[in-house]
Specification:
Blueprint: H1 6-19, H2 32-38, H3 43-55, E1 59-62, E2 66-69, E3 74-77, H4 84-90, E4 95-106, H5 112-118, E5 125-135, E6 138-148, H6 164-170, E7 178-186, H7 190-195, E8 204-212, E9 218-226, E10 231-234
Helix pairs in contact: 1-3, 2-3
């Protein structure tokens, strides 16, 4: 087994300090000089460690002020379909749900984009719900979701006060295949800003998504807004893919 590099050991020990509550969100953190002295290492290694913690989102650097412990955001993994409850728990926070609205009706009673996105008929029954998702009682998501009722008949407001994905899978036996999403930065409506406790002029991340049961069968359409200070979208990109020029002959 290869020995653990000094750089990695120091980085983990600094993370342990924060995990034990010796440094909390917003606290000013050790300087490069402090780290070098504390662990009897070079300033170069200390700088590398602090830079890595900034890159990982554990610390944040404020120009002319210093390095501070960053408040933990909730990661939205763009590579897989994950429930908010799971995202929240993974971030060490307690999830909560406030159901602001719950109703059902024919698809024709809702905005035309609902029919367009769900590929359903005008007479198909739809559940509509507006929920605010909280992390440690702080509102972080405002979600408006339209669900085809035929796949989950008898759904009630009491069923959507927690993880909807869990309810759909455990109670109705549905297997969630994935979702097609479009992410934009928008200025929230007055109602969304109020729900997320934001100034109306703030920018939020808006996700418009269609959820699938298989490659073709649509289950839900959602318009969801994420609090910009409490949510971070995460993805991993593979190696650089170099485009090849089209083959052909000059005319």
């Amino acid at each position: 087994m290869k020995p653990v590099p000094v750089y990695s050991k120091i980085k983990q020990e600094l993370k342990d300090l924060m995990d034990r509550g010796m440094y909390e969100a917003g606290d000013k953190f050790l300087t490069e000089r402090d780290v070098a002295a504390k662990y009897n290492t070079s300033r170069i290694t200390a700088n590398k460690v602090l830079s890595a913690l900034v890159a990982e989102g554990v610390l944040e650097y404020r120009l002319g002020v210093g390095t501070f412990v960053k408040a933990q955001t909730i990661d939205y993994d763009l590579r897989s379909l994950t429930s908010f409850t799971a995202q929240c728990q993974r971030a060490g926070k307690v999830p909560g749900t406030d159901v602001l609205e719950f109703s059902s009706g024919r698809a024709s009673e809702f905005d035309p984009e609902v029919i367009e996105n769900l590929h359903c008929g005008k007479l198909d029954r739809i559940y509509r719900m507006v929920r605010v998702r909280t992390a440690d009682d702080v509102p972080v998501i405002c979600e408006e979701r339209y669900l085809l009722a035929g796949f989950c008949p008898g759904l009630k407001v009491g069923d959507v006060g927690g993880s909807l994905f869990t309810t759909l899978e455990s109670r109705f036996g549905l297997t969630l295949y994935g979702s097609e999403e479009t992410i934009s930065a928008v200025v929230p409506t007055e109602s969304v800003a109020k729900a997320l406790e934001l100034e109306p002029v703030s920018a939020v991340l808006e996700v418009r998504a269609v959820g699938f049961l298989d490659a073709e069968t649509r289950l839900w359409f959602e318009i969801t807004h994420y609090h910009p200070e409490h949510y971070a979208f995460y993805n991993w990109l593979g190696p650089l893919r170099r485009t090849q020029p089209a083959e052909g002959a000059l005319r």
